[in-house]
Amino acid sequence: MLNYQLLKEDQKTSARLGKITTLRGEIDTPIFMPVGTLGTVKSMTNQDLEKMKAQIILGNTYHLYLRPGMDIIAQAGGLHKFMNWKHPILTDSGGFQVFSLGPLRKITEEGVAFSSHLDGSKHFLSPEKSIEIQNIIGADIIMSFDECTPGQVDYEYAKKSMEMTLRWAERCKKAHQKPDTQALFGIVQGGMYEDLRQTCAKSLVEMDFPGYSIGGLSVGEPKPLMYRMLDHTVPFLPKNKPRYLMGVGSLDALFEGVARGIDMFDCVLQTRIARNGSALTSTGQKTIRNATYKDDFSPLDENCDCFVCQNHTKAYIRHLIKCNEILAARLLTYHNLYFTLKIMENIRQAIAENRFSEYKVDFFQKYGIKKD
Amino acid sequence: MLNYQLLKEDQKTSARLGKITTLRGEIDTPIFMPVGTLGTVKSMTNQDLEKMKAQIILGNTYHLYLRPGMDIIAQAGGLHKFMNWKHPILTDSGGFQVFSLGPLRKITEEGVAFSSHLDGSKHFLSPEKSIEIQNIIGADIIMSFDECTPGQVDYEYAKKSMEMTLRWAERCKKAHQKPDTQALFGIVQGGMYEDLRQTCAKSLVEMDFPGYSIGGLSVGEPKPLMYRMLDHTVPFLPKNKPRYLMGVGSLDALFEGVARGIDMFDCVLQTRIARNGSALTSTGQKTIRNATYKDDFSPLDENCDCFVCQNHTKAYIRHLIKCNEILAARLLTYHNLYFTLKIMENIRQAIAENRFSEYKVDFFQKYGIKKD
Questions:
Q1: Is residue B188 within a helix (H) or strand (E), and if so which, with residue range?
Q2: What is the pLDDT of residue B371?
Q3: Which residues have a Cβ under 8 Å from the Cβ of A351 and sit 6 or more positions away?
Q4: Which residues pair with B149 in a beta bridge?
Q5: Phi-psi sector, A116: left (phi>0), alpha (psi -120 to 50), beta
Q6: A187 Cβ neighbours under 8 A, 6+ residues apart
Q7: Whole-angstrom distance, CA of residue B262 vs CA of residue B245
Q8: Phi, psi (5° rounding) for residue B16?
Q9: pLDDT per residue over B241-260, tens digit each?
Q10: Going by C-beta distance under 8 Å and a sequence separation of 6 or more, which residues neighbour residue A20?
């Protein structure tokens, strides 16, 4: 069961305010979803995630399939119970990770044969198998198994790949055992070709999914090209269904995606740069590891009201980073996620108050993002 | 300023209930003090420490002196402000760490020349220097600079070392600039020789310190020998001052120490085994990393009311350990510290209710500790 309610459309852009209802709670859109690859948003507890008002988190099918494995997840009664997360979860199809394995995988019409990045053990992922795994994991929103087309392939490859993704989407729909409790999204592919994106979007809409994802746009392509692909995809998706831009979540892309009608985002950037010692702030990304912060006794962000900024200084966090203390990753992860979720809340508020474009200009200016 | 109030003495053992008052709050004794080597109890926030009711934590002078360095600590306004911990802190003298450096240090009557374990840079620590550093760090309880006598030295070495420790204690007292806000403890040494321990204790008591530490008993000696040394030390310490057994905190040693009149303990065991994937439970220490727990969906300890045991299973935590997830260290650290602090609370309650010996027998039986 999944319901999308369109609450308000922006007048100047395609931004929209909405609410997704699932059996495990409501999700205010546009939303950012923290990534919990292996059943944990790295270094965060569920309480942390609730405190920062995360409404939905991601799990990665490929990773969970290998560890702890489906026997354990099934015995636990699904991922929610395994990690004790009571709110919505979204899983990907495993496709992106499997395709990222490069020489370790082989793609056929049937599916993808691959070797585990952990121990080289051989596995086979097909549309049916991906859905079977996702049915066991039990996420509230699941993804159809697609071929994540690389950014630089030629038109012919992109077309064939997109057509296979459509056939796979059909097979996923057919294989899905729990449509009443898990909403299956179709994924728009088509490389960097406008017409393929349009065709794919239209074909998927004909299949009538409860939501639509846009894939293949976090594969290293220039951002203006990503925005152009969105311009040629979103208009062909129905207004009464949520739209999820997969794997994209840099701050500028969040605003640009929202402006183009995207409702859902996820990204590992926030948590990854945290573990590398960097913080997102309203005046730009800062490498707190740098010596310049060694005696900076101000918070990561002067205007942030997260517990990290309310309690700790850059100098202290830099010290923790330099000493390889776990707490450094933890504090920076909390702040970066809180900061991003707060921006999404601000964006929703701005749309509600007819000032999204103004907020975007203002944010970009302070953050130091050039206008596009 | 430090005041020790003796609230109750056990009838069957030397256990005692007390209260230490410092400018930054009260400490119920007997107490366990989590170790925050580098200005962080590894993976824990201050909020975590408050939630688990930690009343006082440790900082390590040697480590803080090297990182972030005294210039940063001084600029921050002391360690409390640097790490934003509002409750009491205790610092060691740096002696133990410096002596552990082995070939990297040279001891003379004046002090200890040593090379940093980080970059080989040369430093000199003397009683005066240690106190100067501890005055900058600003802990509520500080330690005199001692030579931590190894466990196996001959009588002559132990005697000379203990006598130097006494002369250093005098120098520390003299060098101490903030006796009104920081309580300086003398440290009893004397190797594994009863008469040296007695002599050292008596001599320190004549110097009249606000509290007494017992050092050199976490250096690998057999536990019965440690307990024998306590039997020949504690009786010579005044009843109206707190007694701190340095670096000791295994669960059996906590009970045995309390039974011999010890008020304060610290140990890295709880946090170190957590990072190695082990949990303290009422039925013994468990290696959660082991395959036997892969489908064990019960909490770390059935009777523990910490948030980890209330929310997560051994199977989930084992999965996190196997995936090298930061959250594993965090959950196990919280549980191990909570569990230990809870035991100390139970011990205090038992002393108050005249049933400490019974509680000890009961705990040892369940935990699987043989009677000594």
A1: strand B183-188
A2: 61
A3: A8, A10, A15, A16, A17, A30, A258
A4: none
A5: beta
A6: A93, A143, A144, A146, A165, A169, A204, A212, A213, A214, A215, A246
A7: 7
A8: -145, 150
A9: 999 999 999 999 999 999 99
A10: A2, A3, A4, A5, A26, A27, A29, A31, A242, A263
Q: Note the ipTM here.
A: 0.98
The residue type at B319:
H
State the pairing for strand pair B183-188/B141-143.
parallel
Q: What are phi and psi of B337, to 5 degrees?
A: -70, -45
The alpha-helical segments, DSSP class H, found in chain B are: 46-51, 61-64, 70-76, 79-83, 95-100, 127-137, 155-175, 194-207, 223-231, 251-259, 269-275, 307-311, 314-322, 326-352, 356-367
Residue B281 forms beta bridges with which residues? B284
- Where in the sequence numbering do the catalytic residues of A fall? 92, 266
* Residue B372 predicted with pLDDT over 70: no
Residues 6+ apart with CB under 8 A from B177: B131, B132, B135
Query: Exactly one of B48, B92, B263, B301 is catalytic; which is it?
Result: B92
Strand partners, A58: A35, A90
Residue B213: closest CA among B239, B240, B247, B171: B247
With an 8 Å Cβ cutoff, the interface of chain A facing chain B consists of 38-40, 42-47, 67-68, 71-72, 75-76, 82-84, 294-295, 297, 307, 311-313, 315-316, 319-320, 322-323, 325-327, 329-331
Chain A nearest CA to B44, separation (Å):
7
Residues of B whose CB is below 8 A from A312: 84
Task: For residues B221-241, give the mean pLDDT.
Answer: 97
- Report the half-sphere exposure of A39 (CA within 13 A, side-chain side): 32
- C-beta atoms of B325 and A68 within 8 A: no
Average pLDDT over residues B221-233: 96
pTM, two decimals, is: 0.98
Contact between B47 and A297 using a beta-carbon 8 Å cutoff: no
User: What's the rounded Cα separation, in Å, for the pair B166 and A355?
Assistant: 73
Residue A294 burial (CB count, 10 A):
16
